[in-house]
Write a structure and sequence with these properties.
This protein is α+β, with helices and mostly antiparallel strands. The chain contains 2 helices and 4 strands. Bound molecules: zinc ion.
């Protein structure tokens, strides 16, 4: 499975858990679209897979870390 994960602290789980790393471009183009979260997630995931670490250094992307246990998303700007 092609996905990037990172260990980081989840407030909801109160523990260090695996998080899926998704890079989301800002401002958010899906702001007014229904099912925003899912589209955002997929778009971010595709983007993350295509460009990977290359984009991680760019300012116009937010890093969304999604806890694999509880699904809580932490946005790391
Ligand atoms: Zn969690």
């Amino acid at each position: 499975m092609l996905k990037q994960t990172e260990m980081c602290f989840c407030k909801s789980c109160a523990a260090s858990t695996h998080h899926i790393l998704v890079l989301v471009r800002k401002p958010n183009p899906f702001k007014n679209v229904k099912n925003r979260k899912r589209k955002e997630f997929i778009a971010g995931l595709i983007k993350g897979l295509m460009v990977g670490p290359f984009i991680a250094a760019m300012d116009d992307f937010s890093r969304h870390l999604i806890c694999e246990k509880c699904g809580t998303t932490t946005i790391d700007d």
